[in-house]
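Example record

The entry below shows one chain as it appears in the dataset: sequence first, then structure tokens.
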Amino acid sequence: MKTKNYLIVILLTVFTLSSCRTTFYQVYRATPTDRSMANKDALVYEDENCEVTYNLWSHGGNMGFGFFNKTKENIYLNLDECFFVRNDVANDYYLEREFTQSSNLGSKSSRKKGGSLALTGLNFLGLIQSNQAAAEVSESLMTSSGSSVSVKEKKIVTIPSGTLKYISEYNINESMYRDCDLLKYPKRKQVRTLHFMKDDSPYVFSNRITYRVGEAAEPVQFENQFYVSEITNYPEKEIVENEYDEFCGEKSIEKYDFFKVKSPDRFYIMYLKNGNGMKH
């Protein structure tokens, strides 16, 4: 009995500890150095040939971009001359990778064999009785064939006239920023935002993009640069609300979690409270 009670205490302790784990979010706001890019629905760069859009909102920050061709010719995006740069460290968009796509085809056939079998045993009166029982055995034959195709990563991406393609490879930041003026696990009244200018920002990042319009055109190069201008730590309840989803006036049966602070110029890192006792 003592052992049983001891196990119950352990299970209750584990359940209590796991249920007390609190979720927090570190939310970043990014400001484009070209202020004309700021938009309510997206961060947009535009020239006479293309429109490039960003939506950073994701865990770690999505630095991928949508490239829209405004011209009447093909645009050729030179990935070997495109780079994601973070704090002066350049990362290649063209990585010379090779991807393998595989497929399998299978067919199954079956055949049956019949026979009889003598069964001996006691009947419901307790007497020994022998009967003939029919037996049927099914044999299955499985044949399969497979194939795989190796696809090399494209160095040049073609974007037809009037179309959009998405290029995605890198996250902006996946490790927490820590500061003596920023509580790691704040309560609602303890939430504080750190503000930065470009010169003192902990993260300055950009996409350097090269493209050509038509096959004989000279390359066009530009850079979309951003810097982290705000960092805030929030308890989950301050930025996540649980509500019914609604579409065309019809509400969902279940409630879902929605971010209150979601916007294209923000991104976040989700983390859990641990027991090391550190406040920052």
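Notes for this example: The longest helix spans residues 2-19. The chain has two helices and 17 strands.
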